[in-house]
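To assess whether the prediction recovers the assembly geometry, we first specified each molecular entity separately, as shown.
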Amino acid sequence: QLQLVESGGGLVKPGGSLRLSCAASGFTFSNFYMSWIRQAPGKGLEWVSSITSGDSVYYADSVKGRFTISRDNAKKSLYLQMDSLRAEDTAVYYCARGTHSLPAADWWGQGTLVTVSS
Amino acid sequence: EIVLTQSPGTLSLSPGERATLSCRASQSVSSNYLAWFQQKPGQVPRLLIYGASSRATATPDRFSGSGSGTDYTLTITTLEPEDFAVYYCQYYGTSFPVTFGQGTRLEIK
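The predicted structure of the complete assembly is given in tokenized form:
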């Protein structure tokens, strides 16, 4: 059964760091694009970052230079290292599976809440 | 960047009626890269339509997608009570960034 489970969210002060993880199961993780998508409280969906099966990475301008996406295919895990966090990064962060060649989002995890506040 | 503008912002209809939701792109996009999602309160977004018109697994056939170029439409032919939710369109081509529309709230009239 296909499953994505995020972890690592929590409360962090502005300027702090956090590392999110997404554990995948039920599919051949190494073959798929993976993405992080976030949703601020009461707001819409915002794409954050994607990584291809070949480890090419892409970022939204709002996080470029502060966030780093990575994957460990042996552990079937996706990561998001978030540094220099700001209040506007407060959101539920979802990991999502793409296709072999596109940053689609056909399956989502349950999300993990990141709150940036002093 | 491809900006997606959804209309209307809120759509008020009754069960049994037909819903038409619009998504307009700021520039022409391949229909291969246009998706629709449904999100109910407190729930994770769910993929409904990909490639502009292909239904995802478990998407009821009362949902259909159409369009090309800059104009895309999600149609729900006969609204069921469980269809009242927020709907988002998404561009997911490899000309990054991936973008989402701002959403259309479909509410019970």
